Amino acid sequence: MVQMGSANRLELSERNDLRRLYFYIENNAGTLVNYGMRYRKGLPISSSIAESAVNLVVSHRMAKKQQMRWTDEGAHCLAQVRVAVLNEELSVEKIALLTKTSAAANSLSARRAA
Q1: pLDDT band at 113; cut points 50, 70, 90
Q2: Which partner from 27, 80, 98, 110 sits 20 to 30 angstroms from 8, CA to CA?
Q3: CA 8/CA 14 separation, integer angstroms
Q4: Is the pTM of this model over 0.70?
Q5: Which pLDDT tens digit goes with each residue over 56-91?
Q6: Residue 70: is it exposed, middle or buried by C-beta count within 10 angstroms (0-12/13-18/19+)?
Q7: Cα separation of 56 and 50, whole Å?
């Protein structure tokens, strides 16, 4: 048998979860994808084709048998730049931050190799 006190706490927890969900949807309504509408219009609702293409390119570039291959850190920086371009957030400050991050990682790698 459930005690009244614990049932009230569960209800409160559920109410808090619903409140957080409501505010999330309200704050992000402009960026949420309406998959039902896309499906009814015959539009793709999956990004698997694009993800597969990206995985193919990245894995090819990071393969050890490639003469010109990406490092983990280089691939990470490239992905950050690409996301910034797509989000129209690329700025001189962002490039400077990526450059500093890259320089710090390269100096750390050089110290490890020595």
Answers
A1: low
A2: 27
A3: 10
A4: no
A5: 887 877 777 777 777 888 888 888 878 877 777 777
A6: middle
A7: 10
